[in-house]
Amino acid sequence: MKTKDPTLKILVLLSIVLLTVTYVLPMYVVVVTSLKTPPEISKRQYLLPSGNLHFENYAQAFKLSASSLINSSIISFAVTAIAIFIGGLGGYYLSRSRSLLAKTLFILVGIALYLPYQVILIPLVQIMAKTRLALTHFGLIGSYLILNVPLASVLMGTFFIGIPRELEEAAEVDGASRIQIFFRVISPVALPAYASTAIIIFTQVWNEFLLALTLSTPYTTTIQVKLAEVKGSFLALYNIQMAAALIALLVPLVFFLALGQYFIKGILAGALKG
Amino acid sequence: MSTLNQVNKTQVNQVERPGWKRKRRPRREFSLVDFLVFLLPLLLLVILLYGMLGWTFYVSFADWSGVAPNYTFAGLKWYKMMASLDRFWVDVRNNLKWLILGVVPTVVIALFIAYLLEIGSIRGLESYVRTLILYPVAMSFLVSGTIWSWMYEPNKGVFNTILRGLGLDFLTGRFATNPSTATYWLILVFLWQYLGFAVIILQSSFRTTELQEMVEAAIVDGASRLRILIQVIIPNIRGGILILVSLLLISSLKVFDIVYIVTFGGPGYSTDVLSLHMLIATFQQHLVALGAGLGVIIFAMAFIIVIPYTIYAFRKWFE
Predict the structure, then answer these.
(1) Number of folded domains that form chain B
(2) How does pLDDT run across B206-226, given as a tens digit for each residue?
């Protein structure tokens, strides 16, 4: 599809420049603002960094958010690990069985895949309050599992469908059981798929706000809830707000930059292109 | 010529795949133990999920207002109350704005960017552009909302400062604090964040051998690039567009974080959406039945959106 037409090439370059400005400017402004003092910000010179960089803004924002970073890490890693394990098992069943049960379950899972969380919020809050799970990390972990395992199953299943059946047939001839085949043959081949699914689920849980807001207690406050608190209580201190926003972004951003290919494969699997 | 090509390809495929006959063998079904290991955890979670869905449905017909649960059946009482609220209709209008303006411009712009990337033969630039426009996908709406509140801030914020600096004072605005246009500025944040996501999905749709061959043929025939996009590419990536539109619709329907953090539904309730109203009704006003009803409305909209996606996925999966 490549072109040699010079006007088209210029058009391509122009749009890349435009995109660069659109996507770099906000981040640049955030970083610059996060390193200033409030009086410096009031001078309205956003595009230039100030003379001295005030890293103490980060120290302050980090002090505010340290415990919520730990909570978010515990919750996100736990949900990711359990979700890809259960999702891998379920996704394998959905990708290999043609029974009526598999087909029915697939439709139920398909509808649940992108369920608006509002629909189960009231029961969740009731259950968490009754069982006192809300006081521990298990409350949010359990809630996120219910909502993310369907997605993990479909993502994993999309990858499993692409694994040639010959692999399993060879093991079947040797008399291996389904479970052995899954753990010894399929799972090792599917490690990249697990990585893709994990990074999608992790980002989703880390970034989730609605459930975290309604279900978290002071002991389990997540980083997103903390960011909302910081934004609400440091109204005029844009430097602290921006530093806190960057801290909240840091973990998923590092994963994205380090594992970008897996991230993209996960997105494409969600669009059923695995 | 093209039919000949297709015939050849089918033959080649059959020759190249030695195991194709074995595929006819009946698949081994799952034993009870397999069933328990593979299926039970997922099945239990799905049952739990649908149980809670049913629970919310029932609450929306109950007479629950106040902190303590009240499951007395009240019929459509709270739905009638909902329909009489001005705020509800503002929500519906705003949600429709989100659904249309969050999706159509995103898809159109993404199509052009994906196409330009595809035809622009500049090496190494593709991975640069991918990283550039995709990093916001790793960002929460809370983070992007915080960042964009700062861009939009009317007095000291970034946009107005830049505009003043360029001497374009007449273009400065109140952005997210102007009740009549605030929702559009919120939607712009969503567009900014999901553009890369849309480009990635469309790009992968372009990359099928059949489509590439068709485009080459159209180039030989002397069709213009724009005509190729409209008459050859778009009709042939309908599947990809359908999935993308469903995913964007559902994301823009679920969006509540951007509204919460940038305007909290304000000024007044001019930027309110159903999902924020649901939260406020349930946990601030303690009109739990009303909140459940709003949840049911949101679910109904999501359900309609997700049906084409599910059917498409089902066909692809069990084909």
Answers:
(1) 1
(2) 888 888 888 888 888 888 888
Q: Please tell me the distance from the alpha carbon of residue A116 to that of residue A109, in angstroms, as a whole number.
A: 14
Give me the CATH number covering residue B106: 1.10.3720.10
Q: Does the domain made of A55-270 have the CATH classification 1.10.3720.10?
A: yes
**Does residue B269 lie within any of the structural domains?**
yes
The model's pTM is: 0.90
Q: Where are the domains of chain A?
A: 1-54, 55-270
Nearest to A93 among B38, B125, B310 (CB): B38
Residue B132 lies in a domain: yes
Nearest CB neighbour to B19, from listed A13, A26, A166: A166
Most A CBs within 10 A among B20, B25, B34, B188, hence the mutation to make, goes to B34
Which of A106, A114, A216 should one mutate to test binding to chain B, selecting the residue with the greatest count of B CBs within 10 A?
A114
Residue B3 lies in a domain: no
Any idea what DSSP says for residue B267?
A: S
Distance CA B119, CA B228 (A): 11
Distance CA B3, CA B252 (A): 43
> Which member of A47, A112, A209 has the closest CB to residue B142?
A209
List pLDDT tens digits, range B158-167.
Answer: 888 888 878 7
**Residue numbers of B between 77 and 96 with CB closer than 8 Å to A:** none
B71 touches chain A (CB under 8 A): no
Mean pLDDT by 10 residues, chain B (319 residues): 41 43 55 88 94 94 88 89 93 94 95 86 77 91 90 81 80 80 92 94 86 86 84 88 92 91 86 94 92 95 91 87
